[in-house]
Amino acid sequence: MHQGNEIHKWRHYFEIYDRHFSRYRGTVVGLVEFGVSHGGSLQMWKHYFGPRAAIYGIDLNPACKSLEEEQIRIFTGDQEDRSFLRDLARSIPRIDILIDDGGHTMRQQINTFEELFPRVEPYGVYLCEDLHTSYWPDWGGGYRKRGTFIEYSKNFIDYIHAWHSQNAARLSVSDFTKTVYSLHYYDSILVIEKRPVEKPDHIKVGVPKVSPLDPPKKPLRQALAAFRQRARTLRTGLRKLLR
Ligand SMILES: C[S@@+](CC[C@H](N)C(=O)[O-])C[C@H]1O[C@@H](n2cnc3c(N)ncnc32)[C@H](O)[C@@H]1O
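Above: inputs. Below: predicted complex with S-adenosylmethionine.
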């Protein structure tokens, strides 16, 4: 059991950390954690990843700076402040893992994601925790409320499927589509695993054994809806062309 400075985490988080972080143990890994508090989690990361790890903590509270030690560097600043985040992104040489355990308000989580996600290594991991604040009004949350981190992150599901979009005006392949391999939702945690992603293709191997079924005829209402969707896509395309 950890004997160092105080750590404050939900009990079920540890299994999730190990599931996504274990491949980095003993390697040259750069880990950033927003939210230092008493510094216990930074010490835990140092112990877990080993002597080649570089650990960076960020906290609004300047007193946290005194918790620096070998392998652990601490920056003071507000994770809602985009210019602070941009400076920070320039000061940290390598980010393999980013953990957001800071103030947990919607703006803090979204700004931190937008400024630092692109800085995470191509095979890195972004983990945002305590997402239950997306349901707590005091943190700016509320069930299905616009602007919460949960609602914001639901768009990620669309982005990784953009390869298959038939509505390019509203959903097309982006950097997110090309750099995110998987999204993992747990209670109060979202883990985003990065990996360069190519346009998916499919293969057929082996001998076909049954003759395909003729597709059932579409009922009139469905055919009409498909026709309207096609007309809408055409109109949007034309409008774009004429602009
Ligand atoms: C939940 S505690 C961090 C706990 C720590 N990671 C651990 O596991 O023991 C949250 C920390 O976030 C810091 N914090 C709150 N708002 C912040 C902000 N806007 N920017 C940076 N840090 C902030 C607080 O000062 C506090 O130390």
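The pocket of S-adenosylmethionine is lined by residues 7-9, 33-37, 40-41, 58-61, 78-80, 101-103, 108 (CB under 6 Å).
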